Amino acid sequence: MSDATQAIEPNVTQVAPGVRQVAVGDPFFSYVYLLDSPEGVVAFDAGLRGTGPEILAAAGGRVARVVLSHAHADHRGGAAELGAPIFCHPDEVADAEAAWPQGYLDFSKIENERVREALPALNEAWDGGPVAIAGTVAEGDDVAGFTVIHAPGHAPGEIALFRPEDGLLLAGDVIYTQDLETVSPCPARVPHPCANWDTGQARASIRKLAAFAPTSVWAGHGANVTGDVVAQLEAAAAFEEPDE
After folding, report:
1. pTM
2. Fewest beta carbons less than 10 Å away: which of 36, 65, 82, 160?
């Protein structure tokens, strides 16, 4: 583990200056990124229901703002527990303020029977319910020194955050680095079609992120992507599930 990327506590990793990753929901981790900014700590995503106190502790007791990468249960679950205004992309407001599940989710597309049967119940447990959206962020906006990138496909209002000064990309669920069928680590790939609003657009959004030439990519779950990042993102966009 490099000096720039190191564990602070068992569930908190210093990703880069001003950026910490909080892993919640053992054994299936969902990541929250805490971004230092003049307004205070900004939480990019909000983990699972019941994890708010853990996130607040890692943030030093207070979060100034929550920005959702998208409104799926495992990313908005703890949002209401953080006591801060919640923001998302305009195209995600309707889903954020509505009950789970989103109409496009289709768990019947999962081949692994155990995973197919377990995920609906897990999502019910993870979700904190509809959230009140205080405002929106759109393509090109600044969030704690990061530029907002609209990257639809997994969700209509999915966003990623890119920091030009060091090439750091916080990708949410624009990519998966954990195989949904086996729950095992995997090379970066397009999200599983069971969870996508539009898989074709999801592929296009991965290519859009590659065009920024990031130096590292940190996802919503699983491992980060380093090395030849652009080549790995291009391969992720081309990946197809065996039954596609």
Report:
1. 0.96
2. 36
